[in-house]
Amino acid sequence: MNQPILLPPLSAAAHRARLLAAWSRSDQLFGLVPADQLTRRPISLRHPILFYIGHLPAFAWNQIARGALGLAPLDPELDQLFERGIDPADEAAAEALSVPSWPSLERVLAYRDLARQRLLELVDDVVARHDPQHPLLRGGRILHVAVEHELMHHETLLYMLQRQPELLRPPPGATVNSCRGHIRQSISRIDIPAGPATIGTAPSDVRFAWDNEVPCTVEDVEGFTIDRLPVTNLDLREFVKADGYGVPELWEGAAPDHPTNWVPGKRGTWKVRWLLGVAPMGEAALWPAQVSLAEARAYAKWTGGRLPTEAELHRAAYATPDGTLRQYPWGDDPPDADRCTADFVSWCPRAVGETPAGASAWGVEELVGNGWEWTDTVWQARPGFVADIPTYPGYSTDFFDDDHFVVFGGSWATAATLLRRSFRNWYQPRYPFVFSSFRTVRPTVEAPTAADPSGEPSPASDR
Q1: CATH fold of 12-167
Q2: 215, 299, 286: which is closest to 256 by C-alpha?
Q3: 330-343 pLDDT, tens digit each
Q4: Where are the domains of the chain?
Q5: Rounded to 5 degrees, what are φ and ψ at 385?
Q6: SS3 at position 279
Q7: Class of the 189-442 domain?
Q8: pLDDT in tens, 374-418
Q9: What's the CA gap between 88 and 69, in Å, rounded?
């Protein structure tokens, strides 16, 4: 774990710039919510919005100042209150973890501002203490922990807010990515031959990696056939029309009545949630279907397929026919809007298939961005795993419970730095709120699915 860093560490100025950029984005996103709505809990399985205003500076202070530098608490009560969030299995467990009252917004903001001021003053000290043998001070590692934690919570906040868009103040220029006029691409699948899938990274190859990204391991994968593009809302609507949510054989446990991200309209029509409202199905028909793992499994079973494993998606995304490995599906160039829908380029997904320049070497598209792809891989320790952030040992290990599953690739709200090949993410199987997507795999090429029996393109519509 203590191999030398081959990439040059960031300078103190670069670290400060990253912190300031992350904080600016946090303020922009929290600013979408009127002050009198901050005690709302858009998702009952999470704390109210106000908690996250305090959690982000508390986490950074506890990690950098207290954990890495051994300094005294900033505010003992708030340091502890905002130390960590919750991930309960159900609403009863969430209620047991709820806090009866929260500090005033004024107190939380004063705590945030003081923490930020002090943290900026400490950056030079952290960088100056670089120690190749120290798990927190090696290359300013603890500063990366704080920044990436903040970036992850931007996405968490956004998918929470999507549950109650009526609360929000729309930012200037924010519009829905309408699918009207787009032509639905015919369903097609691509054969991926048997071969290796490389998961993880060596710590010497990156400036920063979370504990679950290390070490680099190689897994042999049998040949499979994979959907070229993710399943869309239009595809999912065929499943709904066929009463797929009412077929017990397709489900493990109780099925929801309909996709959680959909809102019933008039005369049997549907609308789809996006961050700032609900869109008619005609506008959202070709967005990737945002569902839980349980729903994705049921749909895949209905079509005669299954969900991919983490290793299969890694092989489809980063492996090549000549045996080399790419940094991104499209190559080694950094992400941009032509190759993927990510890094806050918009306020909602784009139509599936709009980024063909992001195709992998095999021709599989949209493996990064637009929606975290569900896999059927249980979140667990991979060979050689070590929880090596002493101040945050539970980052990964708290969820090695056989009830969390790997998601792959990133969404439209995922920060660019988290799109790296080795980054890993996970959620509970019945958690439908994340900006997700999915596609199916099969052992061999088959006929078009029940979602599009003709295999012919059809326009997005409200029918």
Answers
A1: Four Helix Bundle (Hemerythrin (Met), subunit A) (1.20.120)
A2: 299
A3: 999 999 999 999 99
A4: 12-167, 189-442
A5: -60, 135
A6: strand
A7: alpha beta
A8: 999 999 999 999 999 999 999 999 999 999 999 999 999 999 999
A9: 32
Answer for the pair 115, 56: CB distance below 8 angstroms, yes or no: no
Q: How many CB atoms sit inside 10 A of residue 81's CB?
A: 17
CA distance 447 to 189: 10
Q: Give the residue ranges of DSSP H helices in 31-170.
A: 49-60, 76-81, 91-96, 105-128, 141-161
Question: Distance (Å, rounded) from C-alpha 219 to C-alpha 211?
Answer: 19
| % helix, strand, coil for the chain, step of 5 | 35, 10, 50
Cα separation, 215 vs 193, in Å, equals 25
Q: What is the pLDDT of residues 141-177, one digit of tens each?
A: 999 999 999 999 999 999 999 999 988 999 988 999 9
Could you tell me the CA-to-CA distances from 336 to 98, 234, 339, 340, 420 in Å, in that order? 40, 26, 6, 6, 13
Please give the structure tokens belonging to residue 263: 């809102």
The number of angstroms, rounded, from the C-alpha of 431 to the middle of its chain's C-alpha atoms is 12
Residues in the chain: 463
List, in order, residues 6 or more apart from 345 with CB less than 8 Å away: 337, 412
Tell me which amino acid residue 16 is: R
Bridge partners of residue 364, in order along the sequence: none
Q: Quote the DSSP letter at residue 183.
A: B
List the end-to-end C-alpha distance of the chain, in Å, as a whole number: 56
